[in-house]
Amino acid sequence: MREGQKLQISATMKLLRMLDQLKQNNRAWAEGKLAADPGFFQRLVAQQQPEYLWIGCSDSRVPANEIVGLAPGELFVHRNVANLAPPQDANYLSVLQFAIDVLKVKHVLVVGHYGCGGVAAAMDGRRRGLVDHWLHPIREVAHDHKAELATFADERERLNRLCELNVIRQVKNVATDVFVEEAWARGQPLSVHGWVYSLSTGLITDLGVTVAGPASPR
Ligand code: CO
Questions:
Q1: Are 21 and 75 in contact (CB under 8 A)?
Q2: pTM, to two decimals
């Protein structure tokens, strides 16, 4: 066997061992859940009854359930780069419709985070391919708030404000969606919230842009 082949095999073994660790973690997790509550998985098989839909960033540092202390079955989750809710995105729309029409969630949480790489990438002018197209709505938000954003001398602070403005825009997108408007029209309780998570403190800030009915911003 050539030296190169040997190296390749050993690298592959190393990669597979990483996955072994995940499988071990999974077995320990399932056993722990059962030890604490023998009926845990059986109940979840029967049905899920989440009261919240989380629309958040794909960022690995923003694990939805963990941040808000919710167990499996309690949070319906949609994540994408920079927590967007684009009115033409079939993936997001399908999640939203299922959450509202079938699961009847009571709250939609749009959760951005400071230091978002997606928001920064939208603004740095570098070409990355497909993701530039995905991030286009953020450049629109930045354009609409050009004057305010220009008042920030510090780039990080400016981008953090853009993270907030992006969340506010996505809340607006969700609240003006036809599935949401129909839910309100039939009297279904539903509100849409805009939150931002801080990577450095682990804390969520409510941006105070909750919409709880047609044209009822609070
Ligand atoms: Co992000």
A1: no
A2: 0.92
* Spacing, Cα 194 to ligand 1 middle (Å): 15
- Look at residue 124 and give its three-state secondary structure: coil
Output the pLDDT for position 11.
Answer: 86
Compute the distance between CA of residue 201 and CA of residue 56 in angstroms, rounded to an integer: 18
Type of residue at 97: Q
Cα(31)–Cα(41) distance, integer angstroms: 11
Task: Report the alpha-carbon distance of residue 4 to residue 10 in Å, rounded.
Answer: 10
Q: Judging by DSSP bridges, how do beta strands 75-80 and 204-206 pair with one another?
A: unpaired
| Ligand 1 centroid, distance to 157 Cα (angstroms) | 15
**How remote is the CA of residue 216 from the centroid of ligand 1, in Å?**
29
Q: Which two tokens stand for residue 68?
A: 């808000």
Report the 10 Å Cβ neighbour count for 162: 24
Give which of 82, 186, 165 is closest to 178, Cα–Cα: 186
Count of C-beta atoms within a 10 Å radius of residue 124: 9
Helix, strand, or coil (residue 36): helix
Q: Which residues of the chain have pLDDT under 50?
A: 217-218
- The answer to whether the beta carbons of residues 174 and 183 sit under 8 Å apart is no
Catalytic positions are: 57, 59, 61, 113, 116
